[in-house]
Amino acid sequence: MIASMEDDEESSNGGAAPPRKKLRLTKEQSLLLEESFRQNHTLNPKQKETLAMQLKLKPRQVEVWFQNRRARSKLKQTEMECEYLKRWFGSLSEQNRRLQREVEELRAMKVGPPTVLSPHSCKPLPASTLTMCPRCERVTTTVIDKGPTKITAAVTTTAATTLSSKVGTPALQSSPSSAAC
């Protein structure tokens, strides 16, 4: 609550007295009050008395000035925080709109099943995956065809030898017990 610079004494005639004039501070008084406020936002009673004597004001006037100054300071801080939050909100809103556009663009793309270009005919072929049995080290190629649920699995024994020669490891041996895999 912001109080007036005047004492809060009620007039004895029921408020019929003319309103009091607002206290005007000199530049020197204002500068000293501001300097005191920068050093300490609140005053203890002794500081208030000392400052009031220096300024030739009543202690209550100094107290009210400090209350008003704290209120103005808090309001200014709140305004600054509000502006910062508005800018941050604007930035986040723009980022959100950009990401939503990107999601819509990605949804608009029609992505088919993965394909690979044939080295011989340069035509797209269905992609295949290589899997290796951890027990027998046999390599299996799985080709996914574009047709309705056509999945072809071809077991190649030479793929293990070819693969190992390309990566520089000894040829993978196919053991008789691995035929059951």
From TrEMBL:
InterPro entries membership: HD, HD-ZIP_Homeobox_LZ_Class_II, Homeobox_CS, Homeodomain-like_sf, Leu_zip_homeo
GO MF term set: DNA-binding transcription factor activity, RNA polymerase II-specific; sequence-specific DNA binding
Domain Homeobox: residue ranges: 16-76
GO CC annotations on file: nucleus
UniProt keyword terms in alphabetical order: DNA-binding, Homeobox, Nucleus, Transcription, Transcription regulation
Region ranges (Disordered): 1-28
Pfam family, one: Homeodomain
SUPFAM superfamilies xref list: Homeodomain-like
Source species of the chain: Rubroshorea leprosula
Localization in the cell: Nucleus
Location of the DNA-binding region in this protein: 18-77
UniProt record similarity statement: Belongs to the HD-ZIP homeobox family. Class II subfamily.
Stated name of the protein: Homeobox domain-containing protein
Biased composition (Acidic residues): 1-11
This protein's record includes keyword Transcription regulation: yes
Keyword Glycoprotein listed: no
